Amino acid sequence: MALLTTITGRLSQAFLLLLVMSLIGFIGIHSVGNPVYNVVNIETATPEDIRRATELLGLDQPLWRQYVVFVQNLATGSFGTSYIYHLPAFDLVLSKLPATLELAVGAIVIATIAGTGLGLLAVTRPGTLIDRIVVTATVFALSVPSFWLSMMLILAGAVMTGWFPPGGRGSTVEVLGGDWSFLTADGLKHLVLPTLALAIPNVALIARLARAGTVEVKKTDFVRFCIAKGLSGRRILFRHALPNISLPIITIVGLQFGGMLAFAVVVETIFAWPGVGKLLIDSIQLLDRPVVMATLTFISIAFVALNALVDLLYAVLDPRVRISA
Amino acid sequence: MKFPTCLRFTGIRTAAAMLALFTATALAAAAQELRVATSYKLMTLDPHYSTLNENSSLLSHIYERLVYQDEHLNLQPGLATSWRRLSDTSWEFKLRENVRFHDGSPFTSDDVVYTIERIRNFLKPPSGGFQAYTKGIASVSAPDPLTVIIDTDGSQPTLPLSLSAIFIMHRDASGFATTEALNAGTALVGTGPYKFKSWRSGEILELTRNDDYWGDRPSWSEVKFRIVESPAARVAALSTGDVDIADFLPARDVEAIKQRGAKVESVPAARLNFLQFELAKEAAPGVTDKSGNTIPNPFRDQKVRQALSMAIDRGILVEKILSGFGTAAAQFFPNGLAGTSSNLTAQPPRYDEAKALLAEAGFPDGFKLVLNGPAGRYPGDGETLQAVAQSWARIGVSVQPVAVPFSVFNTKRGAGEYGVWYGGCSGESVDVCLEAVLASPDAESGAGALNYGQYRNPAFDEMLEKARALDVGPARDKALADVTDFVMKDQPIAPLYHFHHIFGYGERVGSYVMHPRGWTTAMQASPAAK
């Protein structure tokens, strides 16, 4: 029963979120400008062309009516047709999803493993050179803007050495209805630099979290008790400290992963990576409202789902959460 | 682990031989493939969906036109070998023999009829733009498989030019092909030198050679266009040899690209960027006296417009802002192209004279204005506003430059919120721009589509109409040049510059023929001699 209440609560929250998001997105895009100027060739179109295109797109209607039409279409499962590409908007988002997923999953796996590893490495050797290098390097990696980091990666990894291509997505193979590039050698080569560009700041973030968390945990009574009991340092670290610091790390991983799905705009643009983030920013620039709305909805759902997943993992990891729920 | 010497040696030799073999085959295959990084988005595979270069440039590999425009903007036979005027309102086009579509079916006059009907009767907005080219057509008929007769509403001396925009599709027995079906990549057959292979909107377009092409054998066996919107990413892709051609490079990167061994070509674009004035309103938005009080619209005085144009330092614009990849402008197309006037050349700024003119017009102390423009749409657009602001400050006009995203700019310009702004015009011939920017706006005829400032000059309208009624040829060009001379004396706009299209190509490309309309195609590239 409690579970049911939780789920209904969650769902109604998610629904409210989607509603608010769609309103904000709708009004926001509307107030930026008229998309019709990106649909017709503004340097040759006559006022008559513009008027007809406006009517056909339904942009001559008042905003509230446009929104009602949008919601009605949504009820039938349609986000409408992209003004620019003339393809169903949600299909367009889904077609960009494999590119984004392989980038984000790669980056988050690297970030979690390398970040936790570096953090623990530093904390077990407090005050040594390694500790200081990790602390300084993570501050540096967190403070450089991602466009600069991407540029430097292109400069070092592509322009100067020629090891990796400077941008674009490699050849793809079709598996489970999506085009995946990580299954081909060419695709993997193309993946390296953008994945690193996305992973590095997150490696730093997670390393700092892991280090700080462990420092805190080390001061607690139960760790002191473990030491007194004569447990080995390694066993204390992995069996007792790690589960305790994993909660904030999982929260961050969940949040950052959601962010990568949607807002890896800078990295995707610089590496000409055809992902969801790039689609969103391009569509905003072109005022392609159906695609913007479809992308925003997809992102909101992804965030809600990820948060739910993180909460679930809390319960798995933390007995206190299980008992209180 | 140690191998016996002889075995190890053989192993290395075999490996080396295999590597050599592999490299050789890889090179042979790669030598025929052309990889292009383009800024053109290619939004749809429907050739009649939108007139934007964004679509037509890449689709011209697959589809062809009856007539095409060469790099001097002259008309050349395409799918039509010849055309002539039968009467004032009737044209005859003779079609090329032995042309086949990619599915093997022959190209006939019926396909031309189908194409024009599809544009006129089938496509609905927002797939607009092409209707403008078929507007003057009353009827199309096909008396025999290689002849098309087009009857026009009234005299249409530039019908062949209009047809140079229209891609010919193959008649679909089951009715008109829908945009959705074309986007799905089905029934995508044209007569062009390259055949469609695959496409992902906003990502890539892959083409293969059409071995049955009617003209010279296409140079490349495979062509892969990668859509790379960020200029920096295009520069990086070209500098690392990841692509063979990159289009629309930023002028400031040209030196670095050359240093890395790539070649760079440029051509002045058949277009103009200019400043346009609000002329209809009693008070121009954003224009006040120095203390912020509303003043009568100063731009309605010819002397004010002349003074402002005179006080623009176009040398700074093209040398500094465009790094030399621009031509200072005094008319719509770069001097030398058909229909331009040799009397009009850009002059260095004359501040004293401009100040005197302003005083004569009743503004000895100048005035204040907001100068609006798009940011990042055209090369140098945002910086130009700043530079003009500095120039105008020297004649006492204080300027607040405001650059906004292009879509916002268009919305506000369309709503009449601007007093003076930065605009652009391009077209297949100079009269297109003369009509769009300067002719009195008329919703019915579509004239003055870009005349947001409501410039009205009946004498000019009449002259332009007469010039446009002439047949394509020297007499028409002369008349258009005279019209330009006449109207620019009144300074309805302040021309700024013709920016250059800058393309770069790597060692596998021998030469690239630039087109002033800014097209990016594999047909313009020839492979390097081995």
UniProtKB/TrEMBL annotation, chain A:
CDD domains: TM_PBP2 (cd06261). It is found in: Cell membrane. One of its GO terms (biological process) is transmembrane transport. The chain crosses the membrane at residues 12-32, 103-123, 135-164, 191-210, 245-271, 291-317. One of its GO terms (cellular component) is plasma membrane. This is ABC transporter permease. Residues 97-314 form the ABC transmembrane type-1 domain. Pfam families: BPD_transp_1 (PF00528), BPD_transp_1_N (PF19300). Keywords: Cell membrane, Membrane, Transmembrane, Transmembrane helix, Transport. It is a multi-pass membrane protein. It comes from Mesorhizobium zhangyense. Its main location: membrane. It comes from the Bacteria. Belongs to the binding-protein-dependent transport system permease family.
UniProtKB/TrEMBL annotation, chain B:
It comes from the Bacteria. Keywords: Signal, Transport. GO terms for biological process: peptide transport. It is found in: Periplasm. Residues 75-429 form the Solute-binding protein family domain. GO terms for molecular function: peptide transmembrane transporter activity. InterPro entries: Peptide/Ni-bd (IPR030678), SBP_5 (IPR039424), SBP_5_dom (IPR000914). The keyword Metal-binding does not apply. GO terms for cellular component: ATP-binding cassette (ABC) transporter complex; outer membrane-bounded periplasmic space. Residues 1-28 form the signal peptide. Belongs to the bacterial solute-binding protein 5 family. PANTHER family: OLIGOPEPTIDE-BINDING PROTEIN APPA, PERIPLASMIC BINDING COMPONENT OF ABC TRANSPORTER. This is ABC transporter substrate-binding protein.
